[in-house]
Amino acid sequence: MSKEVSRRYFCRVALAGLFLMGRRQTVADATHSCSSGEETPEETEGPYFKPRSPERQSLLEPGIEGHRLVLSGLVMDPSCVRLPRVMLDFWQADAAGEYDNSGFRLRDHQFTDDQGRYRLETIVPGVYPGRTRHIHVKVQSRGTTILTSQLYFPGEVRNPSDWLFRQDLLLTVMDAGETMRARFDFVVTA
Questions:
Q1: Closest Cα to residue 90, out of 30, 40, 150, 177?
Q2: From the first residue on, what is the mean pLDDT of each consecutive set of 10 residues in the chain (190 residues)?
Q3: Pairing of strands 107-111, 87-91
Q4: Which of 89, 101, 117, 152 has its CA 20 to 30 A from that of 45?
């Protein structure tokens, strides 16, 4: 095992331990570090975005099959200030790798709370030709430009062959049990 893999593994295990002990995560525990001053990288929107998604925090509807996922995190500015009332618009493929292009299945928008936190209940998306598992997202606070990006899953066989994949957009998976728990913190210009 290389030093980089060992270090990454140690960090993930440490974060998982803190999470499981019930400790509130601070900005210093963020997955995408705001202390570097770098914003979350942009990615292509892709062909499947639909505006006017319903406002909700759970995409779990009757008939949705797949491994459950709870994704949570913070939205902060480059100075590590948490941003309230920021809109996040999520969309993804179902477990078979198909997008709902006629309705709003596995699509939503929501707003961060007063502490800049968000929480999404969904499923792990499936793969389709040319792509690894990913979740699309748009992040926008009032009066700012929209950050469009994608979030990826660690350890996926298809990550190296997906030409859009970026290591710095990996989710931090804290528990891959019956319901996967993952985290990603966004850094955007306020």
A1: 150
A2: 41 37 34 74 94 96 95 95 96 97 96 97 97 97 87 97 97 93 93
A3: antiparallel
A4: 117
